[in-house]
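hi! just following up on the protien thing from before. the input was this:
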Amino acid sequence: MGNSALKAHLETAQKTGVFQLTGKGLTEFPEDLQKLTSNLRTIDLSNNKIEFLPPLIGKFSFLKSLALNNNKLTALPEELCKLKKLETLHLNGNHLRQLPAAFGQLSALKTLSLSGNQLRTVPTQLCGLRHLDVVDLSRNQIQNVPDTVGELQTIELNLNQNQISQISVQISHCPRLKVLRLEENCLELSMLPQSILSDSQISLLAVEGNLFEIKKLRELEGYDKYMERFTATKKKFA
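and the predicted 3d structure came back as:
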């Protein structure tokens, strides 16, 4: 892509606050964007070949949405955690193994998508985020869900297509968790905490494709309580 094309994109971005350049084979974050640190509200660089995000990302203090789906990121800079207005972060289809230590400082974050990365656990940094609505950790290499998950504030947690064989009973203490997706994992029925059914806020539990038949779930104690929540929620959205 020529400089003139990039210049045209930058001029548009200056007016609109949106910089979108997807599927152009970019190998690095366009440095020229730093001229627009106070303009940009949205950056979308999905479907490129970007290998790392430069520290200057921390200067986009008004950024609300950042999308870098399907790139080649292996790590994220700590500077990313300075984005106090960031509400949406899409990083699906990269090679991320962990999140920066200060990730919990992204205090405005509502939507986080990390599907198709190389995470091995549910990042504890997420527990500090108070405004989460949706966390997508599907298609990673997560094997267990630790006790810290009880502090997670999200409404929906997607853990489909991982290798989960153990889940902490603390998951039933998540204060806002309504939707829990655990499809296509390695769960035995005995490893599914019954308190998810009997004693949680969860009103949609998706567990197809594990090591038990779904009809066995209906025999568990607390299933009727879960169905009450499920039905009440369904009526609300109907």
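The radius of gyration is 20 Å.
The chain has a mean pLDDT of 95.
cheers
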